TrEMBL record:
<dbReference type="GO" id="GO:0042781">
    <property type="term" value="F:3'-tRNA processing endoribonuclease activity"/>
</dbReference>
<feature type="binding site">
    <location>
        <position position="268"/>
    </location>
    <ligand>
        <name>Zn(2+) 2</name>
    </ligand>
</feature>
<keyword id="KW-0819">tRNA processing</keyword>
<keyword id="KW-0378">Hydrolase</keyword>
<feature type="binding site">
    <location>
        <position position="66"/>
    </location>
    <ligand>
        <name>Zn(2+) 2</name>
    </ligand>
</feature>
<comment type="similarity">
    <text>Belongs to the RNase Z family.</text>
</comment>
<feature type="binding site">
    <location>
        <position position="62"/>
    </location>
    <ligand>
        <name>Zn(2+) 1</name>
    </ligand>
</feature>
<feature type="binding site">
    <location>
        <position position="64"/>
    </location>
    <ligand>
        <name>Zn(2+) 1</name>
    </ligand>
</feature>
<dbReference type="InterPro" id="IPR013471">
    <property type="entry name" value="RNase_Z/BN"/>
</dbReference>
<keyword id="KW-0862">Zinc</keyword>
<feature type="binding site">
    <location>
        <position position="139"/>
    </location>
    <ligand>
        <name>Zn(2+) 1</name>
    </ligand>
</feature>
<feature type="domain" description="Metallo-beta-lactamase">
    <location>
        <begin position="202"/>
        <end position="269"/>
    </location>
</feature>
<dbReference type="Pfam" id="PF12706">
    <property type="entry name" value="Lactamase_B_2"/>
</dbReference>
<comment type="subunit">
    <text>Homodimer.</text>
</comment>
<feature type="active site" description="Proton acceptor">
    <location>
        <position position="66"/>
    </location>
</feature>
<protein>
    <recommendedName>
        <fullName>Ribonuclease Z</fullName>
        <ecNumber>3.1.26.11</ecNumber>
    </recommendedName>
</protein>
<comment type="function">
    <text>Zinc phosphodiesterase, which displays some tRNA 3'-processing endonuclease activity. Probably involved in tRNA maturation, by removing a 3'-trailer from precursor tRNA.</text>
</comment>
Amino acid sequence: MQITFLGTSSGVPTRSRNVSSVALRLPQRAELWLFDCGEGTQHQILRSDLKISQLSRIFITHMHGDHIFGLMGLLASCGLAGNVKRVDIYGPSGLNEYLQAALRYSHTHFSYPVKVHTVHPGVIYEDDEFIVSCGLLHHRITAFGYRVAEKDRPGRFDVEKAKELQIPSGPIYGKLKRGETVTLADGRVIHGDQLCGNTEIGRKMAYCTDTIYCDGAVQLAQDADVLIHEATFAHQDADMAFQRLHSTSTMAAQTAYAAGVNRLLMTHFSPRYAPGNDIELKDLLREARAIFPKTEMAHDFMIYDVPRRREIDSKSTIHN
Ligand SMILES: [Zn+2]
Ligand SMILES: [Zn+2]
């Protein structure tokens, strides 16, 4: 599970930060999932190491332009240039009508299937390895946060040890791999757990933007390995955060703290904190770290490898 930030500015792009989009690479299955798709997201993908041909799912938080204006361009290019097989898009009601209207008036046809799923709080996608759920946030319009959870996997089956114990290969191995107890023809009772390594704990990522501090975000982020949370404003500008229903950096940190996450990555920064201004982004980072020390500030093209639980803290996982 590898996260790449493609846009970290709120509202409008700046010279160094594009508007919202986060890519999640799932290397084990050569898939790319996107969270939000602000204008210019396809250009950002081209400038990254991500492969557009691997794009398979897009999750949209809400219908504000800085989160969706890149969608039509990206989807149209996927048909012309990429060899995308199928894209499933998840988002609030209105998203399908928006795309249908854009298709109709721009005389665009996708050369591959695109399916839009209108989401409601709860589980919105599940397969053998992943479960994706969404929950309501608190913003000026309906906005959803997303949680991607990798399922726990049984530990690696020790084939060598099984051979040493002279357990006949075949279906018995399958049972033991699943942790079941098996009685062999010679009467020996073998517990699968003895032959399997420790369970691999699945990784969990939560993506919460745009929102002011709310219980929905805390619930969604519960025990996550990484929380990506918006921090549009500095604490000093909290009145603007309340007016526009965005978060301050301290609200993002409070959410991370309340949810007990392992790491907070802040994004969606107001351009007003550019270097040289009274308040700068480093001040937002300082404020957040006072509450939740394991906070980082995202920047465009920042990559974060979500570590497995046992790897946590043993190595740095952020490449700049
Ligand atoms: Zn926004
Ligand atoms: Zn918004």
